Amino acid sequence: MRRTPVSIAAPFALLAAAAFAAPAHAASLEVSIRDARNQDGQFQVALVDAAGYAGQAAPIAGRLLAPAGEVTHLRFDDVPAGRYALMVIHDENGNGKLDTNLAGMPVEGYGFSNNPRVMRKPTFDEAAFEIGRDTTALDIAIR
């Protein structure tokens, strides 16, 4: 029986392993952010999976951008298929965080994917959406 030299087989084995490890699909996510109270500061946008939503992992992707009129548009490309949530903070004074009052209520704008109407931070399931093969569009209303 003839044997294949390791030096020839190894690169093919690595390619096969990489093909199985790579995400099955990647798509684009188009986001529209509306209803900001003003055009000051910047939006902090984080695309997270369940671990990122719980603060146990870094965001999948993030952006900082200035409000651009009534609706601000942004796009994430090559997002692997999966279940995600999008979080937006309107850092109106540019101090890098969501300011709150003495009761802990936000005094700056914020929003989540699916625009859940809750008086607390929505659960991941309430804000979650799926990304598959096609471009996904989200509309985020700042509260």
Describe the structure.
By secondary structure, the protein is α+β, with helices and mostly antiparallel strands. The protein is 17% helix and 37% strand. The longest helix is centred in the first third of the chain and has 16 residues, at 6-21.
Name the features.
about 140 residues; alpha+beta; 5-stranded antiparallel beta sheet; 3-stranded mixed beta sheet; 3 helices; 8 strands; about 15% helix
Distance between the termini: 71 Å
In terms of structural class, how would the helical and strand content be classed? alpha+beta
Radius of gyration: 20 Å
- Unreliable stretches: 14-22
Beta-strand percentage?
35-45%
Main sheet: strands, sense, barrel: 5 strands, antiparallel
The H/E string reads HEEHEEEEHEE
Categorize the overall geometry: globular
> How many individual β-strands?
8
Put simply, the count of helices is 3
What would the average pLDDT be, to the nearest integer?
88
Record the SSE blueprint.
Elements: H1 6-21, E1 26-34, E2 42-48, H2 50-53, E3 61-65, E4 71-80, E5 82-91, E6 110-112, H3 124-127, E7 129-131, E8 136-141
Parallel strand pairs: 1-8
Antiparallel strand pairs: 1-4, 2-3, 2-5, 5-6, 5-7
Briefly summarize what is shown.
The chain is of the alpha+beta class and 143 residues long. The protein has helices at 6-21, 50-53, 124-127, and strands at residues 26-34, 42-48, 61-65, 71-80, 82-91, 110-112, 129-131, 136-141.
